Amino acid sequence: MSFQERMSLTVMTASTVAYIIFMLLIGRAWNAGRFEGPEGLVYTGKTLLIFIAIFIVLTVGSLIIQAIFETVLTGEEDAMDEGEDERDRAYEFQSLRIQSIVSGVFFCASLGALWAGFSGPVAIHLIFFGFFIGMIAGELRKFLLYREG
Amino acid sequence: MVRAKKPKPQIANNIRRLRFDHDEMTQKALAEATGVTRQTIMAIEAAKYSPSLELAFQIAQAFGEPIQNVFSYQPDGTED
């Protein structure tokens, strides 16, 4: 398994773990009625902003830890030094394309949810979930492309 | 009705042979000469990734060969 494949796996794992924790915490707040009424939107904005910060720290932190771990234990310091080339950019582009499509579908679904009478926080969470699923789908696509060659 | 799957076009190459002919040049040396990663050279050599025209010329230049001696187009996906 190449360095890029392992990086994709790390991003997918770290973001899934972060999102599951977020969902568990949100579930409790949801049951407690914190997303209802006009204050619900304020609470949604606050929790999502905090989560995005934690999410970035967790994902970037995992990648740094992985890079250090690999350099120390396997001696593959070349993997990071080699940088990015046209193949990486091509795969990144394909990954972003998948990510955009999935996120777009969820954005439309959130508008549909509003139309169907669901509250603002539900629509925002649906958009956010779309970003998450889109990112996982994009990383998976990248992982499979690197796997192929 | 079942349609036959159209074979994927492929860019075949002689990189492995050319590396051998050039004092057994390593993939890493070729990667450094062309400014890409060793993984990319591996993928191109295994015909799993088709390089850009610019990179194809750079690889040919690294071997001092015209591009048609390094790469060939296989419309039906068959190897030489």
TrEMBL record, chain A:
Keywords: Membrane, Transmembrane, Transmembrane helix. The chain crosses the membrane at residues 7-27, 47-69, 96-116, 122-140. This is DUF2178 domain-containing protein. It comes from Celeribacter arenosi.
UniProtKB/TrEMBL annotation, chain B:
It comes from the Bacteria. CDD domains: HTH_XRE (cd00093). Pfam families: HTH_3. Keywords: DNA-binding. SUPFAM superfamilies: lambda repressor-like DNA-binding domains (SSF47413). SMART domains: HTH_XRE. Residues 15-70 form the HTH cro/C1-type domain. PANTHER family: DNA-BIDING PHAGE PROTEIN, TRACRIPTIONAL REGULATORY PROTEIN-RELATED-RELATED. This is Helix-turn-helix transcriptional regulator. The lineage of its organism: Bacteria, Pseudomonadati, Pseudomonadota, Alphaproteobacteria, Rhodobacterales.
